[in-house]
């Protein structure tokens, strides 16, 4: 069988989202194993993962997948959803040491604030923030404005306004006006 033959076959979604067979899963997924927790400094890596990491991380990853599905991340190539941000916020708020504290947004978490001071993020592109409807309205309004500005009567009006501004020295009049206003 060629290697490529089975590579690009669609995966059955029922198998991905159904409960996995018990023999496929280690006994620790989703809950802390029974028994006394081992000393975190002396236990094996497997015990550390089973007792301290997986009981917290795996529900976070499940919540991440549900949120990604809600944000329609699996439908397109680009999305405004940042999975690491979601997981950071989720893990911070679900930390057992913070169980009595109120929910904290990502950008209000102290270590995130400190990190962003030194490593500011670029803004999210407008194409990811707008819905398809909002984007189409914006494009249509720019197109209508362009078509109106191409009209010969509008061009004539704009030329007349430009000439009027130059003749009356409108820019200097406005500067003088604001200088007087700021002096008050």
UniProtKB/TrEMBL annotation:
InterPro entries: IQ_motif_EF-hand-BS, IQCK. It comes from the Eukaryota. Gene3D superfamilies: cAMP-dependent protein kinase regulatory subunit, dimerization-anchoring domain. This is IQCK protein. It comes from Drymodes brunneopygia. The lineage of its organism: Eukaryota, Metazoa, Chordata, Craniata, Vertebrata.
């Amino acid at each position: 069988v060629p290697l490529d033959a089975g590579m690009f076959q669609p995966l059955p979604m029922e198998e991905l989202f159904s409960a996995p067979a018990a023999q496929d899963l280690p006994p620790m997924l989703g809950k802390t194993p029974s028994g006394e927790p081992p000393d975190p400094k002396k236990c094996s890596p497997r015990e550390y993962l089973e007792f301290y990491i997986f009981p917290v991380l795996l529900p976070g990853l499940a919540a991440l997948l549900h949120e990604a599905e809600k944000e329609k991340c699996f439908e397109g190539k680009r999305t405004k959803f940042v999975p690491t941000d979601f997981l950071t916020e989720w893990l911070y708020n679900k930390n057992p040491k913070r169980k009595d504290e109120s929910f904290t947004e990502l950008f209000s978490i102290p270590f995130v604030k400190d990190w962003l001071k030194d490593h500011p993020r670029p803004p999210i592109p407008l194409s990811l923030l707008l819905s398809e409807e909002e984007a189409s309205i914006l494009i249509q309004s720019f197109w209508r404005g362009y078509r109106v500005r191409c009209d010969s009567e509008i061009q004539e009006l704009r030329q007349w306004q430009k000439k009027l501004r130059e003749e009356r020295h409108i820019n200097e009049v406005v500067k003088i006006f604001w200088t007087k206003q700021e002096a008050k």
